[in-house]
Amino acid sequence: MRNGKKTVLAVLLAGCCAFSGCGTQAEDTEQAEQGNFVTGTVECKEVYVRAKIPGYLTDIPIEEGQEIKEGDLLFSTDQRDVQVKQTQASATAQAAAGQVEAAAGQVQAAKNAVEAAAAVVDKANANVQLLETEYAKYQELYAMDAVSEDNMDKLATQLEAAKLDAQAALSQQQAAQGQYEAATGQYGAATGQLQAAKGVLAEVNLNLSQTSQYAPCNGTVTMISSSVGELIGTGTTIVTLTDYGDRWIMANVDEYEIGKLRIGQEIPLTSKAYPDTVFHGKIVNISKNPDFAVKKSTNELNDQDVVTYAVKIALSGEDDVMLYPGMLVRVDLDKVGEAQ
Fold it and tell me: Could you tell me which of 74, 226, 306, 320 has the fewest CB atoms within 10 Å of its CB?
């Protein structure tokens, strides 16, 4: 009887030991499978093409899912309102150009008048100088009684008249100069109005060109938000383009691991969607600003927050399998720099 009890006890002890050993091995296997991973999200370049000019949509020659190239037409809006503004702006610019031309003619005429008045002033001053010289000689002759007093009076009268003529010519020259300056001011104002009119016309022409929006890059049409005939406003998103060729992973790495990472390092990536495929990534940016705390401190433990930093990992274009935006990817921090 005692031997039977000893046998049962030995079997139970062996079972417990075996169970304990299995548990330890299972925990070790789970820990080995976990490794030092962080989870990242696949993102890619998205471009939101918005309407610059309000109006009715007249054409959307694309469909969702369509592959397009840079420069392809995405949508068009009604041009009639802008064309009316273009006609008005063009007429205003032409009128301003006419005013500039007329002002330029006035400036030239005033300049000619100034030059003519200057010539008259020079001639009048020369006549005064000639009469003054002659009068001085006649005074010497008059002192010797070689010239009569009547002749001296006539010469003095001529000299006085010449001086008056010189003063009048100078006044005319000053008036012509004033007219020239006024004409120059009018020309400057007309030129300013012409430049403003040209600016308005250029803006209207730009708006007219933007009634048709073209693809800014290659990509796939992932969403069309409006329909032909719909009235849209400025800034309304009409088409969303996605460039699946420009993809990257955004992962949050805690502060204990961020020191291992450097821009340019290669890193392997895996996805549940393709468990047998290892993707190739390269670190292109490490944010210097903390993102959020993965571990909050508590008063009882007196710990500190553990924050994370956003790491951007570019995907290699050599990988044939597509990782779609929003997919979760495991980033193996223990194998940084080992990707080939």
Answer: 320
User: What domains can be seen in the chain, in order of their start residue?
Assistant: 48-79+211-237 (2.40.50.100), 81-209 (1.10.287.620)
Pairing of the two strands 237-254 and 37-50? antiparallel
Residues 314, 306: contact at Cβ < 8 Å?
no
**Contact by Cβ (8 Å): 138, 190:** no
Distances (CA, A) of 81 to 30, 183, 205, 206, 230: 69, 38, 12, 14, 16
Q: Is 203 left (phi over 0), alpha (psi -120 to 50) or beta?
A: alpha
* CA distances for 306 relative to 250, 259, 288, 291, angstroms: 19, 14, 15, 10
> 37 CB contacts (<8 Å, ≥6 apart)?
330, 331, 332, 333
| Cα atoms in the 13 Å half-sphere on the side-chain side of 254 | 12
In the DSSP assignment, the letter for residue 258 is: G
CA distance 233 to 239: 14
Token digits of residue 182: 């006024």
pLDDT for 203-225, tens place per residue?
Answer: 999 999 999 999 999 999 999 99
Backbone angles phi, psi at 306, to 5 degrees: -110, 115
User: Does residue 271 contact residue 323 with C-beta atoms inside 8 Å?
Assistant: yes
Q: Please spell the DSSP secondary structure of 9-68, one letter per residue.
A: HHHHHHHHHHHHHHHHHHHHHHHHHH-SEEEEEEEEEEEEEE-SS-EEEEE----TT-EE
pTM: 0.64
Q: How confident is the model at residue 304 (pLDDT cuts 50, 70, 90)?
A: low
What's the helix, strand, coil split of the chain in %, to 5?
50, 30, 25
The helix (run of H) or strand (run of E) holding residue 200 is: helix 149-209
Q: Could you give the 3-state DSSP secondary structure of residue 282? A: strand
